[in-house]
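Thread: "does anyone have the structure for this chain?"

Original post by V.I.:
We have the sequence but no experimental structure in hand. Need at least a predicted one for the grant figures.
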Amino acid sequence: MAEFGGRAVVVAGVVAAALFGRALRASWLVHADGSRVVRPTDPGREAFRRQLGLAEELLATG
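Reply from O.Q.:
Generated one for you, tokens below.
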């Protein structure tokens, strides 16, 4: 945890939110049927594999 303006900031949450936002803007993730559920697109699966080293079974849709 880091201190920011006297308040503790959980860096993991900030990083996760930034990654999620970037993935949506890059169309690596899309909302399924207008819901809050997201699924990876084909380019997204490739990017997550290449950039983050995630295994295919973590990126499967279904």
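V.I.: this helps a lot. The beta strands are 2-4, 7-9, 29-31, 38-40.
O.Q.: and The mean pLDDT is 84.
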